[in-house]
Amino acid sequence: MLQDRLLQVQVTGVTMIPNHHQLLGLLARAEPAFMAAHFATEFPAYPDREGERGTVLYFEGGYWDIRMDGGPTYLLAPGGSRIIGPDGVEDGPAMGRLPSRPPWSLVLPRWSTFLGREDDDWQMDADIPVTEDGASWAASLTSLESPAFHGTLGIDPETCAITRVELGHMVQTLLVVRTEPTAADLAALETIKSTVQQFTAQT
Predict the structure, then answer these.
(1) pTM of the predicted model, to two decimals?
(2) 197 CB contacts (<8 Å, ≥6 apart)?
(3) Rounded mean pLDDT of the chain?
């Protein structure tokens, strides 16, 4: 959960839309206490190309339960990882650097490539104001490698998770189902804590 909402200025009970600098700060620090969501990657220009989709449970502190449709399940903890696939179970080290793809890059935007940092592929277009699009904030993106290419970014104001990325050839979505854990969610967290082994490097 974001502890500080100073950048979301409250005026007469209404949350103001942040400017680009404020939004970048919120995205870089976003850390929901809990999130359950569906995620998907689609390629509108390539209908024969199948993208990843699945469900994610995220618990503050680095605990993940990620289930890829037709693929592996990832159980991740701060001290280790467990990947459950058709060929068995693989235990390993914690992911020190999370993948820059859904769901990691959408739940925790600091792991995305859209914030205009040195190693990122995209940056927000400061010439186009951040707007409200329904219940989301919307920001325009420009490719750092090819400035003629543009995209859009949708952000959930409550969690500061990225809910939609449109880059022309690719669309990434995150549908937040709930931000308060159920009993089943808490049981899943206990499963992660009890089954994911603390990784110790072999010497």
Answers:
(1) 0.89
(2) 80, 82, 91
(3) 91
